[in-house]
Amino acid sequence: MTADASPKSSRWLNACEWTVGLGATVAALWLHVTYLLHAGGLWRDETNSVHLATTGSFGEMCGQLTHDSFPILFPSLLRFWSETIGGASDLRLRVFGFAVGLGILFALWLNARLLKTGVPLLPLGLVAMNLAVVRWGDSLRGYGLGCVLMLVSVGLVWRLSQCMTPARFALAAVAGILSVQCLYQNAFLFGAACVGGCVVCLRRREMRNGLIVLAAGVPAALSLLPYLRPLQRAQDWWVVEKTGFSEDRLLQTLGDAAGAGNPWMNWVWLGLLFLVAVVGLAMLKSSREDTLEVSGEVRVFGAVMLLTGLAGFGVFIQLAQLPTQTWYWLPLLAFGGMCFECVLCHGSRNVRVARLLLIIAIALGTFQTNLRFAGCRQTNMDRIAEHLAKRVGPADLIVVHPWYLSVSFNRYYHGPAKWRTLPPISDYHIHRYDLVKAQLMSASPVEEVLADVKNILRAGGRVWVVGAIPSVQPGQLPPADPPPAPNELLGWNDGGYSSIWGTQFACLLAENAAELREEIVGDDECVIGFESVPLQVASGNKPAAPDANQ
Predict the structure, then answer these.
(1) Cα separation of 397 and 214, whole Å?
(2) In a 10 Å sphere around its CB, with 0-12 CB exposed, 13-18 middle and 19+ buried, how is residue 394 labelled?
(3) What is the pLDDT of residues 108-140, one digit of tens each?
(4) What is the pLDDT of residue 291?
């Protein structure tokens, strides 16, 4: 009876794992479909990607790569999609992102087969059902596709470590090249996979095979060499965006990515990280004979990858010196979820049951919140541009502030009124930090725009404000122009200059406009905070205050 009970129990547990795994996959698919149908227009970073990918000739596109965050693969695929399959409409472009999202699901299941980890419960619960992965992975940026290629390349490195054949080496090397050609930071994660595969071989005392696994990462590394000089030249203007490493911001954005609207999920990630670190270190310290089975080797592989991957990704963040954003962490989340699965998938029956119950709890605890926020729009800029096209006249002026909102505004606005930014630049097609830097170095770069605002109001026209401007008190004097950059107070940080220019603009409106009121556009729509843009209109010419000496 005892002998018969164990196989029955195992079959029952397998059936439960498959049921929950397939259910989590369907739930994740539901989130992707919801996002596709409700994301709406392209926000500024997506617009930047699309405009860069579809600009001029292929050579011109390549020349502008340093104005975005990705190597050549993602913009090339987006260009191909736009020209041959999807067209330029927002919905058709979003289908491209939807396909990438489905690719993440496919890669999770494919890796489970390559690594022989069974049903990928932890990656499905932690990654596939994570709203940050759905939203930012499906957006028209390179992070989702980078996750897909990184996952596949890691699985192929594992296969190479198990059997050295020319075909497996070629597959792993090509997958690594594609991975790093989509995201620069994937170089550190793919390198971690190669180190993990090498350690597995070394524990079998197969030094030659270990060196072969490491060699699979060499073509990927060499493929990045052509970017070194362009990236070095681009630092001349990226200095405007570089605010340095901030531990507080890092923790905030990492928490936003891991929790994605469910803060308690951060504790789940931390708990699993601690558990996997303990189990992984124990496996690494165990005797070689204890890890010669495939189940032991995949644990060692996952543990080594996790440790080296975390260290390498930390080096990348430190080197970048850019303010971290939620979407920066997507590759690390996908990588970490896969490492967790490698270490814990072959545990005892109790571990498998606990893993199963955890994923059920994650699904039940997050799905409703995730589904609600998956139905939010990425931006309301398309709605604002449509509203303005109907309301403005040739005598009006539109001011877009801060300047970086101009990229999405430029895509959608086609009305009769002229529009300007603070400061004005000559190209609103993509994010031109080089042009912004030139304006930071000039004296009074917004003086002409402010003069136009004053003249429009005096002539009886209206000034429309797209974006947030500071609140000012009646009679408040505008701040003085900041010294040209770089200066001791603001350095190169365009945010500080933009705040001063916005306050100057707000003071000018308070002094010259008889009325400043907010326009409500699509107030019943949910829009995420990254580009939920307010719209105000200033009208009337305020009479000058009487001279107190008279």
Answers:
(1) 60
(2) exposed
(3) 999 999 999 889 999 999 999 999 999 999 999
(4) 53
CA dihedral sign of residues 72, 170, 296, 188: negative
Query: Cβ(62)–Cβ(33) under 8 Å?
Result: no
Which residue, 275, 390, 257, 379, is CA-closest to 329?
257
8 A C-beta contact, residue 475 and residue 438: no
**Whole-angstrom distance, CA of residue 347 vs CA of residue 414:** 60
Residue ranges per domain, the chain?
Answer: 15-223+243-374, 381-541
Length of the chain in residues, anyone?
A: 550
Single-letter amino acid, residue 188: F
| Residue with the two structure tokens 């604002």 | 384
- The per-residue DSSP string of 197-219 comes to HHHHHHHTT-HHHHHHHHHTTHH
Helices 143-162 and 131-138, packing angle to 10 deg: 110
Rounded to 5°, angle at Cα 271 from 270 and 274: 85
In order of 90, 229, 335, 406, the CA distances from 434 in angstroms are 28, 17, 34, 15
List all residues 6 or more positions away from 264 whose beta carbon is below 8 Å from its beta carbon.
365
Contact, 260 vs 372, CB < 8 A?
Answer: no
Half-sphere exposure of 199 (CA within 13 A, CB side): 24
* Tokens of residue 488, six digits: 């001791």
How far apart, in whole angstroms, are the C-alpha atoms of residue 374 and residue 361?
Answer: 20
Mean predicted confidence (pLDDT) in 225-242: 89
CA distances, 109 to each of 155, 190, 426 (Å): 11, 19, 47
Is there a contact between 321 and 493 (Cβ–Cβ < 8 Å)? no
- Quote the CA–CA distance of 414 and 82 in Å, as a whole number: 21
Q: What is the pLDDT of residue 424?
A: 95
List the structure tokens of 26: 């369907």
- 305-339 as b/e: b if 16+ CB within 10 A: bbbbbbebbeebbeebeebbbbbbbbbbbbbbbbb
**CA–CA separation, 333 and 185 (whole Å):** 13
Inter-residue contact 139 to 50 (CB < 8 Å): no
- The position carrying tokens 């002998």 is 3
Query: In 3-state terms, what secondary structure has residue 541?
Result: strand
Strand order in the sheet with 513-519: 418-421, 397-400, 463-466, 535-541, 513-519
Report d(CA 208, CA 221) in Å as an integer: 20
DSSP 485: S
Question: Residues 125, 318, 433, CA angle at the centre, nearest 5°?
Answer: 100
Which pTM does this prediction carry?
A: 0.92
Interval 350-362: pLDDT, tens: 888 999 999 999 9
3-state secondary structure of 474: coil
